[in-house]
Amino acid sequence: MAMKTGEAYRKSIKSLGLKAHVLGETIGDPTVHGLVEPSQNAVAFTYDAAHDKETKTLFCVESPLCKDVVNRFTHLHQSTDDLVNKVKMQRYCGVQTGCCFQRCVGLDAANAIFSTTYECDEKHGTNYHKRFKDYWKWIQKEDLVVDGAMTDPKGDRGKRPVEQHDLDLFLRVKEQRRDGVVISGAKLHQTGMLNSHEILVMPTLTMRPGEERWAVCCALPTDAEGIRYIYGRQSSDTRKLEEYRLDVGNPIYGGQEVMTVFEDVFVPKERVFLNGEIDFSGTLVERFASYHRQSYGGCKVGVGDVLIGATALIARMNGVHKAGHINDKLVEMIHLNETIYSCGIACSATGERTAAGNFQVNMLLANVCKLNVTRFPYELARLATDVAGGLLGTMPSAADLEDPLTGKYIRKYLASNPEYETVDRMKVLRLIENLVAGAGAVGYLIESMHGAGPPAAQRIMIKRQAEIDKKMMKVKTFLGIQ
Ligand code: SF4
Q1: What is the average per-residue pLDDT within 422-434?
Q2: How remote is the CA of residue 293 from the centroid of ligand 1, in Å?
Q3: Nearest protein Cα to ligand 1, atom 1
Q4: With pLDDT > 70 as the criterion, what percentage of the chain qualifies?
Q5: Which atom of ligand 1 is nearest to the CA of 191?
Q6: What's the pLDDT score for residue 31?
Q7: Catalytic residue among 99, 299, 347, 369, which?
Q8: Mean pLDDT of 41-52
Q9: Are 270 and 63 in contact (CB under 8 A)?
Q10: What global pTM score does this model have?
Q11: Whole-number Cα distances in Å, 143 to 60, 78, 80, 357
């Protein structure tokens, strides 16, 4: 078995022949579309890093499941060291790409499904765990990208799945067959879906009695019949289609989100890992969410490193780097960024073995990590905007820079610290713009708020995990209160 290179990965995705709806057009080969390509570059990076002699020890790991070396993006964590290394790897990918590299959702889904199916089988005598192990062994051997699909459209938020005017607003099993199930519904915000080989569908919330149809977890190939992809817009996304790369900000990489519709899609029995066991739907949701909240303690920190570097550089280019208030702002950015990282490392280092044998993060600390992520990147973006100056929002285009008539004025009047070329100053400003207000802000800001659940979801989990009764009891004992 050989781990794929970035190039082999690109070929394998191309060979699937996926179709997608992008900006009102149906496109036959998303892999060569200007909007999709940067996101594919980011995924390809996760493959090449496993072959790079500088990083292969972090990206490659021995898997007891397939008894071979695999890319860590497909690994079932065997220790707290594995959990810590996952976060380190994500920070590295974040700082190298400056965007969401999309491959972690499948990894987080796999680890959650592995332990949940084991416990479900113990209680209900089902056969899901063995099925999932066989499936994931194949994923590891083929070194595939898997999309973890959790978020349902949810319709009227005040109503349960069974009360919605359209039952598809929560993805459900529409038909039970002897050889499998037929599912119907949609998953929103699907990170990297068009760059994936496989999809792991999961329930979106804890299901109650009467909601068995919605308690479904299964795997599908992305080219399965009945699946439709509608590409998500990002701010300033069409800059990626323009002639000049300078205005994009991040010249090579980018993220991707897709609305995915499942129209009566058949799933064979051997790919079904939960089918009506409502008591395990919540377990699966909580475990997946916790893993992904841990993930943000790595990836968002890496992108934060890019923003801090760009902010320090623009301060130098603007000639203000010696000012005390600029240094204070940079230190504040570093402090916030490293606080997120500390949470990512802490929830990993204090993780625990599950009954199935893989390792689960410390759920309380993972939720604290993500709650910080809903706030700190916004503060980093505010400070970067402050330091960069108003030009961030008013700078002329790359096309005007190239125009012989206007270009000379732009070079003359946007010149600053003579150690730097005007065009380089423009590149750094565009990179900051990308992260605080452009296409990159989807991954760095909006995703930080809502990805892996909004702040209210983390607050609920924090309250649930914090053992407040135990703390009160300690105080009572301490004070001799009956
Ligand atoms: Fe990975 Fe972060 Fe993107 Fe989630 S948001 S897929 S953790 S890079």
Answers
A1: 98
A2: 9
A3: 104
A4: 100
A5: 6
A6: 87
A7: 299
A8: 98
A9: no
A10: 0.97
A11: 11, 18, 23, 22
Ligand 1 centroid to Cα of residue 298, in Å, is 9
Q: Which residues contact 57 (CB under 8 A, 6 or more apart)?
A: none
Catalytic site includes residue 104 = yes
* Average pLDDT of the chain to the nearest whole number: 97
Would you put residue 189 in left (φ > 0), alpha (ψ -120 to 50) or beta? Answer: left
pLDDT in tens, 463-477: 999 999 999 999 999
No. of helices (H) and no. of strands (E), the chain: 18, 14
Cα–Cα nearest to 248, from 257, 256, 239, 235? 239
Under DSSP, the state recorded for 446 is I
Catalytic residue among 104, 217, 343, 369: 104
Cβ of residue 104 lying under 6 Å from some atom of ligand 1: yes
Q: 350 catalytic, yes or no?
A: no
Q: Which two structure tokens, joined as six digits, stand for 271?
A: 């790919």
93-128 in b/e form (b: 16+ CB < 10 A) is bbbbbbbbbbbbbbbbbbbbbbbbbbbbbeeeebeb
Predicted confidence at residue 1, as pLDDT, reads 65
Structure tokens at 437: 């207000």
